[in-house]
């Protein structure tokens, strides 16, 4: 598909505001199912924390996502990552922004003070040439006037590919893999990733942020998968 500036990435109709990238009709159609506000997994409507989170809460406070990993968002993420269509990143970041603004207005999350992005394996970053989480985090930080540095979380140890490991081994695999390199004590922090699947990577970073005294931790992503 050809990129024509001024057309919506999804319906190809002219945009009222070319900078949006995705028109308001297509954005509004990207709805998420009723889910737990903490882990983002399916839950009954009106439930802020599911039974799993009440029993065994994740190390973050809130998770905000746009949709499940499904069409049309999954194919846009695929294009961003694997065809290096980096021009898509601000349009995708804006979808997260719309959800975040709604949550801040509803009083369900505090306005964040600093944003961090999940770092890639250095080998993968070198091959791909960019980190999609950083491409999403940078415009979000600019729009929300938050502190952001792409190297504020560093991967200090190469890890095995997560999806081949069991949940327990995943956590062990990530232990000591990251280092936080900015002051977090007492601040409202957000971790941005493109897709959260098991959540073990964002959980490891959230644990570190909590250990260093972060006031609250939110996770923002485009898609949450089961
Ligand atoms: Zn559209
Ligand atoms: Zn939950």
From TrEMBL:
Coiled-coil annotated residue ranges, if any: none
Signal peptide: none
Gene3D superfamilies, per database record: 3.40.50.2020
Superkingdom: Bacteria
Pfam families assigned: Pribosyltran (PF00156)
InterPro entries in the record: ComF/GntX_DNA_util-trans, PRTase-like, PRTase_dom
Domain Phosphoribosyltransferase: 133-224
Family stated for the protein in its record: Belongs to the ComF/GntX family.
Name by which UniProt lists this protein: DNA utilization protein GntX
Annotated organism of origin: Cedecea colo
